[in-house]
Amino acid sequence: MTDISKAGSFTLGGRKVHRLGFGAMQLAGPGVFGPPKNREEAVAVLRAAVESGVNHIDTSDFYGPHVTNQLIREALHPYPDDLVLVTKIGAKRGADASWKPATSRQELIDAVHDNLRNLGLDVLELVNFRSPYGVHGLVEGSIAPQVTVLAELQRQGLVRHIGLSNVTQAQIAEGRRICQVVCVQNHYNLTHREDDAVIDALGREGIAYVPYFPLGGFTPLQSSELSEVADALGVAPMQVALAWLLQRAPNILLIPGTSSLAHLAENLAAAELVLPKDAVAKLGRIAGQPAR
Asked: What is the largest CA-CA distance in the chain?
């Protein structure tokens, strides 16, 4: 079994977690809507992840909707003491599987209670607010009203820690003026590197950075350089992509998702993969960035 502790650990809120975690989004049906194709395997994937040492799972009640949270509860409740469940609010699903903003005061309150109920918890360890302004890129706009609501729920004891998702540097600064922000969850991977400066700045503050779509999301990463490095090392390209992220900065926490036991094992194996300097340099050229 892979020793995921070799990837190191980082403090997320008040809890230390392994840097290689699990994202539950892909456990829902096609388009992150409806039930999984194979419910038994979805439950098995969650249990196998935790048995392998994963103690950070990312989810949301709008995945499905409700599907992934209910699967997590079925598979893992009562939860291990060291397991950190992180959820996200700020959106909802239409009956046609569309994604819609859900950022009013009442929608945010309802979302927190939905997550609590479906996960079977009395308090949510960490809630990310997802900015509604950009779908295919970051867009400026005030998030103060929504973060203020989350801060109120935190004072009520329903939320322990607060994070931000899909946010610009200005929005991060705005959120931090309202409450302590313990993590930022933005789109970032080997080929999508607009947040390089953000990662470094957060690292200096001891704030976790959690890249979503670390393997490309709905469009898996493809690159001749990535394939060449993987072939030279005798590993899968996606393992290289995850290992690169782990070596990119110590405050990066990974949440690759899958609904397959085989892919789960492949992803977790990245914890033991150390990329040589020449490989890092070659991968850095994919996005026209210097090696790090």
From this structure: 54
pTM of the model: 0.95
63 is catalytic: yes
CA of residue 225 relative to chain centroid, distance = 25
Rg (CA), the chain: 18
pLDDT at 135: 75
Enumerate residues 6+ apart whose C-beta is below 8 A from 81. none
Please confirm whether the linkage preceding 237 is cis (ω < 30° from 0): no
At 40-80, the pLDDT tens digits run 999 999 999 999 999 999 999 999 999 999 999 999 999 99
DSSP 63-118: TBTTHHHHHHHHHHPSPPTT-EEEEEESEEE-TTS-EEE--SHHHHHHHHHHHHHH
Domains observed in the chain: 9-219+249-258 (3.20.20.100)
What pLDDT was estimated at residue 60?
98
CA distance 240 to 213: 15
Per the residue annotation, which of 63, 79, 188, 209 is the catalytic one?
63
